[in-house]
Each structure stands twice: as structure tokens, then as C-alpha cells.
Design brief:
With 195 residues, this protein is of the alpha+beta class. The protein is built from 1 helix and 10 strands. It is globular and about 45 Å long.
Length: 195
């Protein structure tokens, strides 16, 4: 009788193990199907389409000037990497421009920018004000226009990069109460090559 119970217990374990294997097989097949669906997305498989080069004019080693005073306010290194898929910015200010009240150090921040197959996406973070995500595309004049995807501190932010004939880049910065569309300019920067 004891042998029969033991055999029945082993049989139940084998049945459970078989059921688990079948479940894992079904789960694995579902995951493979999801992976195949992701692989068939409309996003380009390489980062060498014309859209991926829309922001190339900003790539460089730059001196940053306040357009109103012509004062040197910082340095910005903007590089492409990861087979041209990512544009990374490393900004360091050398003046108190954009310094948060009460903070003992000057602003420094980074951004990661990428064309996602539909629009450009920027993720910005700095040492004083926080982080923000922006999304957009070039306008009819070829200027890159990115607007915050989610309000930051109940405000929307709009950044406009203008490629200029002399090889410089002008960045206009705007802010508006969240959802209002009432933009007010708060910054105007000129990027000149750091030679």
C-alpha cells in the first residue's frame, strides 16, 4: 500500500512537471511572438536615414555665448555615438546664468537625443533644476523644435535650434504655463565652434 501511495505521489509530481513544461513552452512561444512583433516595428533598423541626420548641425565642440551680451557663458560638447544613433550633449556653464537661487555651484547638465522612427526625443537632466523630456521635429525652416512631453514644475518648455549660415547655432528657449501655449522667451544662446 505504501508503494502504491509513493508511486501515485511520483506520478502526480511528473504530471505537474509536465504541465509546467507545457506552460513554459506556451509562455516561451508567446514571448517569441512578442519579440518578432517588436522586430517588425516601423523604426529604421539603422541610424543612417535622412531623419537621423536632421540634428547633425548641432554636433560639435562649442563655446556658448549669451546672445544679448555676447558674454561667454559656457562650453558644450555634442557628440554622436552608438553607430550614429545617439546625440549626447555635455553642457557646463562658467557663469551664473540659469543658476538656481541659493545653489552654490553653476549649472551643468547632459542630454541624450535620438530619432525614434517618428520624432526626435530628448531626455535632459542637470545638477540644479531636475529633468525633462522633450519631443519634436524640424520646422519648415529646418530649425529643430522640441517641446516638453510632460510639464516640468507646471510649465511647458520649448527649445528651438537654428542652424546659421556662418556655422554657428542659435538656441532659443521658451517657457509657458502648462498647457497654455503662451510662450515667453527666457534664453537666447549662440554656439560658436571651440577652436
Amino acid at each position: 500500500m505504501a508503494k502504491v501511495k509513493t508511486l501515485m505521489s511520483h506520478g502526480a509530481l511528473i504530471c505537474r512537471a509536465a504541465a509546467a513544461a507545457v506552460a513554459l513552452g506556451v509562455f516561451g512561444a508567446a514571448m517569441s511572438a512578442q519579440g518578432a512583433a517588436l522586430e517588425q516595428s516601423t523604426a529604421p533598423s539603422t541610424c543612417d536615414t535622412p531623419q537621423h541626420h536632421q540634428f547633425d548641425f548641432w554636433v560639435g565642440d562649442w563655446q556658448v555665448f549669451d546672445a544679448h551680451t555676447n558674454q561667454l557663458v559656457g562650453f558644450d560638447r555634442v557628440e554622436k555615438h552608438s553607430e550614429g544613433c545617439i546625440i549626447q550633449q555635455n553642457l557646463t556653464l562658467i557663469t551664473d546664468l540659469y543658476r538656481r537661487p541659493g545653489v552654490k555651484y553653476r549649472l551643468a547638465g547632459i542630454s541624450v537625443n535620438r530619432f525614434d522612427g517618428e520624432t526626435w526625443l530628448e531626455m535632459w537632466a542637470d545638477n540644479q533644476w531636475g529633468a525633462i523630456v522633450l519631443r519634436g521635429m524640424p520646422d519648415a525652416n529646418g530649425s529643430m523644435v522640441l517641446i516638453s512631453a510632460i510639464p516640468s514644475r507646471n510649465r511647458d518648455v520649448k527649445l528651438v535650434w537654428e542652424k546659421r549660415p556662418d556655422g554657428t547655432v542659435r538656441i532659443l528657449q521658451y517657457v509657458a504655463p502648462a498647457g497654455s501655449g503662451k510662450w515667453e522667451q527666457y534664453g537666447d544662446l549662440i554656439y560658436r565652434p571651440n577652436r
